[in-house]
Amino acid sequence: MANKKSKGEENNELKKLIAHAKEYGYVYPSSEIYDGLQAVYDYGAYGSELKNNLKRLWWECMVRLNENVVGLDSAIFMHPTTWKASGHVDSFNDPMVDNKDSKKRYRADVLIEEYAESLRKAGEVDKGNVIESEMNQLLEAEDLAAVKDLIEREDIKCPISGTCNWTDVRQFNLMFDTQIGSVADDSGKIYLRPETAQGIFVNFLNVQKTARQKVPFGIAQIGKAFRNEIVARQFIFRMREFEQMEMQFFVRPGEEMKWFEHWKSVRLKWHKALGVPEDKLRIHEHEKLAHYANAAVDIEFEFPFGFKEVEGIHSRTDFDLKQHQEFSKKKMQYFDPEINQNYIPYVVETSIGADRLFLMTLFNAFVEEEVGEGDKVKQRTYLKLHPALAPIKAAILPLTKKDGLPEKGREIFDRLRFDFNLIYEDTQSIGKRYTRQDLIGTPFCIAVDHQTLEDDTVTIRHRDTTEQKRVSIDALHARLSEACSFTRIFEQL
Ligand code: ATP
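Above: inputs. Below: predicted complex with adenosine-5'-triphosphate.
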């Protein structure tokens, strides 16, 4: 589906979400008191809960639901040769170009892609496609001078200065480096990992042997990754410090396409089970493959700024293990007892950014609707988060601060707190407290009133419908468990 939003509408939607995320404790710019640090963000009280829930869901779907997938938590720092072997030192580059007037830096490929997209939107589909494929060929041939010529030939201007006054196009390595130990020369230079996958590859035999796994099996890992992105914008979509959730699945050579198709469909189903509408998801097939891959697709979500990658599924061949075998001089082979053969397994990878998943989840959940009639119409905003993912499962709200209602509220809170993340609040009008919970995305509000003291019942208000029902206190635990457990998501997989 073509993205028909204007740039202004795209920006408004994004700005609105950024403001909401900040105001309601989801995401703040990092080191904000010092005016922030570009493309680095912090997660607040509710953001950290939502992110943890997303990570836990991914982990349980990978590790708990697949008997042949086990976990790993490898270090961020790795031996520097790791990144020589993986190809990151030599080729983890983006082509960058600076505009001399605005002093702004761009990714040359993104600049050209956006120009090609603007041509397509203006009806010049063929021309847009030809330019994009010319760019891909030039980048493949590493002909950066010709990439600059292409920018100048098409008169692609800097959106800030409006000029075509560009520097040469240069390659820029995205890895951050630092020093290990006390020696400040190149011998101590190490990198912050730009992906978590290499920690899995170098541990492949350790895990296989100690967790007694047989090919095909997978290793899953969640952890921080760092990339010195040239163009860092669109909020937490492109960060310099972010989190990845990766799973490397080791298979017999020749069987990788079967597993590639398997994981592609499993992962697509996963996104749908989370409640992402089908028409907001699409599969993008890579035409230009990375040096290590023989097949690759992205699962894309339609953000306000267009369909963009949330997850990559790559058939990485035996490239990484072979490279590590060569550079470490240690055998990376697996003995397959079923066919009585030694081989280096092929790898199918699923790789998703926790922060992009978080952003997709927030966009999906953000609802603005008009309620009421006639001159009583007002706007209601709420986060329609899946109850299993919502940071707070229920708010316990005594109607007033007297007559023993707070004590009763606390009693209910204490009965449920070990199993559910709750909020207790007894100040402000009940309407205001409901509104605040809607904005945070709390699926249930439990109001404690005078009737509660008489018959041990409460009203439970549902966030999405605002309907209220009277239920007994004894029934609350079962109701929350039913709605908030991951089982409901698992059942759809
Ligand atoms: P892109 O083309 O958007 O730069 P990529 O193809 O380089 O992404 P991969 O290397 O395949 O991304 O990384 C796997 C996943 O990690 C991506 O699908 C994305 O969700 C996440 N990711 C990658 N780079 C970033 C980043 N800078 N900020 C946040 N998430 C990221």
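Residues 195, 227, 229, 238-239, 242, 244, 309-312, 351-353, 355-356 surround adenosine-5'-triphosphate (CB under 6 Å).
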